[in-house]
Amino acid sequence: MKLSRYVLRYDTEDGSVYFNTKNNHSFLITNELKKNIKENKTTGSEYIAYLEENRYLLEDNEVNKYLKQIEDRNNEILEFTILTHGDCNFRCKYCYEHFKNIGMSIETENAILKFAEEKLSNSQYHFLRIAWFGGEPLLGYKTIQRLSLEFLKICERFGITYSASITTNGFLLTSSKFEKLVREYDVTNFQITIDGDGESHDSQRVLKNQKGSYARILDNLHKMKDSDLDFICTLRFNISKENYDHMESFLLNDGRYFKNDDRFFLLYHNIGNWGQGDRSKDDCVTVFKNDMSFGISKKAVDLGYHLSLPSIVVHNSFSCYANRLNHYMFNVRGIVQACTVALYDNQNVFGNINTGLINKDKMKGWFLSVREDCKTCPFVLICKSGFCPMAKHITELSSSVICKNMQEKIRKNLVLYAISGCYEDILDVD
Fold first, then answer.
1. Pairing mode, strands 187-193 and 357-358
2. DSSP string of 162-205?
3. pLDDT per residue over 116-130, tens digit each?
4. What is the DSSP string of 18-46?
5. How far is CA 258 from CA 233, 252, 263, in A?
6. Helix (H, G, I), strand (E, B) or coil at 296
7. What distance in Å separates the CA atoms of residue 334 and residue 114, rounded to the nearest whole number?
8. Maximum distance among all alpha carbons in the chain?
């Protein structure tokens, strides 16, 4: 018996957690059962059969086989990220965007709809995924309303499965808007940022008028929780040196209201040097050099919270939307891009949907493919040789740095995955 090199393992006090990156299957085997397997041939044979059934054992040409499966699955999905408005009601102290008070025109909306219809008429696609983004996307709520209804009609016509998400600051997410988004427009996945407790949040996520935003966002989140609607909400925490000491405060206080609700998940990220945007030098926060997300994520798990990232990062569908061939980002003027961070870099501009001209060769040059020298790496089915085109093309990080960062990211999230008990099976003695 030889395990595939693409099986990851993390040892806990109770046993070992195995994660199969080939098919995303996972299990915990207890220390007691491991001992029993060594002593009992029948138990050992049953264990080998279990491993074989779930593809944990070495297979012929397995890396190419499973990379092809991942590619085939991705080719069934058409994804749009749509920036509905050029402005934001916030002026966060780490924001990289330049804002203009402009909404999306009817002409641009119609061009996007025409493009979607042309693409989905091709039997290649089985899924349409829409991500509403900004600026603040709810400033462009009318665009969300109109396009959502039209997307749903198109998907019904072609037998396409539709799903939608929104990244919003949550300030404008009233009960009526929230219910309409879920019930009428099939927006069921929300990402809303809370930067620690009220004090720390209001110090770096300020409104345009420099007032705080925490109380209203928290109230809107409470109303979401009090509803009986089916949705997922990821509470994102952007970590700076200024707010790090306030992260635990949220977990011990306001966060408790959401802890036992399976619809709410926490997500921690270090703030990065993403650009100055419209901010002055005085409107900045201090960036950590070292990753601080792991420690607070582990603390959240210890306190009984659900995390979103571990299950995503160890899954072989993990990739940045900016590195998916069938993903298109449209800004408020119809410019076609891939990355929502490198908004102002020409390398991330591929055409304009209003003219119908998209430089497909330039787009293909943007995407990263799996290198041959990566195929023996146990993380390759997750990492896919780096997954972030911005890091490679714009930030110009070396392959070795990208590799090191990705391995660290995957290892940490495997730990969080294991201690969160996300695995599918528990193998134990009867």
1. unpaired
2. EEEEEEE-STT--HHHHHHHHHTT-EEEEEEE--SSHHHHHHHS
3. 999 999 889 999 999
4. EEETTTTEEEEEEHHHHHHHHH-HHHHHH
5. 10, 11, 9
6. helix
7. 13
8. 72
Torsion angle, CA of 90/94/100/104, rounded to 10 degrees? Answer: -80
pLDDT of residue 241: 95
* Tokens representing residue 6 in the block: 């693409």
Structure tokens at 153: 């009609």
Q: Which residue has the tokens 């069934």?
A: 76
pLDDT per residue as tens digits for the range 125-158: 999 999 999 999 999 999 999 999 999 999 999 9
Instruction: Please give the single-letter amino acid code of residue 135.
Output: G
Share of residues in the chain with pLDDT > 70 (%): 100
Q: How far is CA 422 from the centre of its chain?
A: 17
Q: How many residues does the chain have?
A: 430
Which residues contact residue 291 at a Cβ distance below 8 angstroms, ignoring those fewer than 6 apart? 270, 408, 412
Half-sphere exposure of 206 (CA within 13 A, CB side): 14
Classify residue 17 as exposed, middle or buried by CB count within 10 Å of its CB (0-12, 13-18, 19+): buried
Output the CA–CA distances (angstroms, integers) from residue 363 to 130, 341, 348, 394, in the order listed: 20, 16, 8, 14
Amino acid at site 320? C
At residue 283 the predicted structure's pLDDT band, cuts being 50, 70 and 90, is confident
- What is this structure's pTM? 0.95
Decide if 330 contacts 115 (C-beta within 8 A). no
Q: What's the pLDDT band for 324 if we cut at 50, 70, 90?
A: very high
More confident residue, 183 or 310: 183
- The CATH number of the structural domain formed by 68-313 is 3.20.20.70
Can you tell me whether residue 425 is helix, strand or coil? strand
Query: pLDDT per residue over 243-263, tens digit each?
Result: 999 999 999 999 999 999 999
Q: Which residue has the tokens 């808007």?
A: 177
